[in-house]
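In the current project phase, the collection of sequences with tokenised folds has grown. A representative record is quoted in full directly below:
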Amino acid sequence: MGSFERFKTKTHFNSLKRLVGVTALAALAVKLLTVALATAAGGGTPLDLLARVPANLADVGSALLVFEVLRTRRPLQLAARSAILVAVSPVLFVASGIHGDSAGVAVALLLLALYLLVDRDAPLVAGIVLAVASRVEPMVLLAAPVAIAAVASAAAGGQEPDPRARRSRLVHFGGALAGALFAAWVPALAWGWDSLAPAPGGASGPGGLGPGWVLARSLDHGLAGWLLGPGRPMVLAAAVMPAVVWVRRRPRRVYAAVGLLLLAPLALGPAWSPRDLVWPAVFGYLGDARWASIYAVAAGATVVWTSTWWGTGLPWHGGVAPGTVPDGAMAGLGLVTWVVLASWLVIGWRTVTVESRAAAEAGTAAESRAAVEAGVVVGSPAAVEAGAVDNRGNLATRSATLPPGGLDASPGHAGASGNGSAGSGNGSASSAGDSGDGLASAGEGTSPSRGSLSLPT
């Protein structure tokens, strides 16, 4: 690349980064202006406006971090588009701009922790940031096993020249997280600080939205009651385990895996409150931008319609009485949102299954090639003892129709481009390595492979 091409690339990157920043700041101004007008009309105080500033600033940080994460994993235009969609998300507009909900702050801190761990190689700071995020919203601790699995699987797989460096990162991250969690939570648990009390106005009943209300009966009995009560740990385990398996097979899928983790409790739960819809709104764009946009429309319409800002909506922070049944429009919007979540979860789990199988086959093929290079005849007793397998045929795994964030490129596999088609910029098969969201690492775009994979004979 000549100097002129480098200049054009840098100028293009700077212009897109400025566009993301300006859009995020414009969205912030609109949110604060709306809250200021609502506060003035409702006889509020300036403290009501100041209480919403942290959540709105967190949304700006989330948009900028989405661009920073995706700019090395997708074409710059797609990275900028995803960041802008996060900035103008209607879900975040209602959650942060109208209610000043702390879930947006926790999501931004979780994204920052993963960015520091994966992209900036700062495990010590990442562990501390994750502990701070858990102090804001304890649900972010569900992402801790995924982050630990990403570091541990990389160390076990020897993806770096010195696996000891990976183990050192694991020790630093785990130690910082444990120490910060101890400092943040033990005093509160020991002395029963008021910060652990439920949010004001929160109800003890189930959330006012979800598929369980279609039955038009109380949700404290039957399967719905079990999922909301004693079966809740099973729901959380079903959310965590596939994400951990995905990261164990594909360590650089950590962002998409956390997005899958955050949407699973909603898709598997029979009822949830409007504020719960905030969790997948940001991380969804790091896995599948198309489904994240569909979810933003459905969930945005739901939270706007049910928001207590209009005076007739559901309680934002808590649930409703078990016997309460939402009206037609409210129940319909909640059901549509759940259908989107359930479909998204099924596609995500299918991606985990396909990629895990592909990773296992790729590992078997690598063992076979290593045995052949070592001079062991495949199929011989020595090869059997060494665990080699005769895979000298076509190593290409069958293609799968997956969303962006699906089957990645690996030895013997075609790379996936930003628009979901196999291959690279000119349509030829690529052999690029893993990327964080299931796409070929592109920067400003992908380039065709100059060589082909030849197997030893």
Remarks:
- The chain has a mean pLDDT of 75.
